[in-house]
Amino acid sequence: MIEFRSVRKEYADGTVAVGDLSLVVPRGRTVVLLGSSGCGKTTLLRMVNRMVDPSAGTVLVDGADVRERDAVELRRSIGYVLQAGGLLPHRTVADNVATVPRLLGAGRREARARALELVELVGLDVALADRYPAQLSGGQQQRVGVARALGADPDVLLMDEPFGAVDPIVRADLQVELRRLQGELGKTVLFVTHDVDEAFALGDEVVILRAGGVVAQSGTPAEILADPADDFVADFVGLRSARRRLSVREENGSRLVVDASGRPLGLLEGGAAEAGTKDVRTA
């Protein structure tokens, strides 16, 4: 579990990145910090592994104040995935993934075996283990970044816009892969993004931030869409746009989901007479 207790971050020039914020990330859940650039979401993320120290307040991981832990030891115990992957270009995939196990004292053979397990876990062919990052696609590099973050089997995983540098198709694939991994591993994940669809696809809970790290609304994606807290939230998640206002249209015996402009978005499965939740296959 991660807990922020009345945290504040004010820089020397007087800029307030985060105001008085309190938040709990429950164990085994994925909480997404969502907001525009400059809203303090990355600052909050980096408070967890002490890359940024708060000006006031307390950050706890599993009930322990992070300031009472050695910063290096703390960072090695927490998985961290960056947007650009952050891989060491002069090391192979296996050596990149084995970095933290080696730092924690594992022998070379043990660390490599662990690395190969993780390469498979994130959906990569182990034949890629001896390649260098430059020999991989962007999506493959990001999978290696996730594998490396899992190297020490951390309870907590921090993800700072990890899929922002890849194309939309690869990004969607990586989101599916992350959901699969989270279903298998049950990590405590704090995820940062500015993409609303990504936040709603991944988050058990989504925290929408205003400028200055002020919480505009938090809740499940369904709660936010059904009852936005104010006009700022409604506009930010696109509830006033045609893309979010959906309806069903009959077309050649099929039921299409369309937006307010009539653009088809997907196919609604199940007959008109069926009750309950329907599956939507999006275009």
Description of the molecule:
- The chain has 283 residues and is of the alpha/beta class.
- The protein folds into two domains: 2-236, P-loop containing nucleotide triphosphate hydrolases (Rossmann fold, 3-Layer(aba) Sandwich); 247-282, no CATH class.
- Helix content is 31%, strand content 28%.
- It has ten helices and 14 strands.
- A six-stranded mixed β-sheet has the order 6-7-8-3-9-10, sandwiched between helices. It has a four-stranded antiparallel β-sheet with strand order 2-1-4-5, covered by helices on one side. The protein has a four-stranded antiparallel β-sheet with strand order 11-12-13-14, with no helix packed on it.
- A hairpin with a 5-residue loop joins β12 and β13 (264-269).
- α5 (108-121) packs across α6 (138-149).
- The longest helix is centred in the middle third of the chain and has 18 residues, at 168-185.
- The two termini are 37 Å apart.
Radius of gyration: 21 Å
Q: Any idea what the CATH architecture of the largest domain is?
A: 3-Layer(aba) Sandwich
What's the number of helices? 10
The poorly predicted ranges are 271-283
Domain count: the total is: 2
Helix percentage range:
25-40%
Largest sheet: 6 strands, mixed
Mean pLDDT across residues: 91
**Percent in strands:** 25-35%
Counted beta strands:
14
What is the helix/strand order?
A: EEEHEEHEHHHHEHEHEEHHEEEE
Q: What is the name of the CATH topology of the largest domain?
A: Rossmann fold
Shape: globular
Strand order, largest beta sheet: 6-7-8-3-9-10
N-to-C terminal Cα separation, in Å?
Answer: 37 Å
CATH C-level category of the largest domain: Alpha Beta
The CATH superfamily of the largest domain bears the name P-loop containing nucleotide triphosphate hydrolases
SS class: alpha/beta
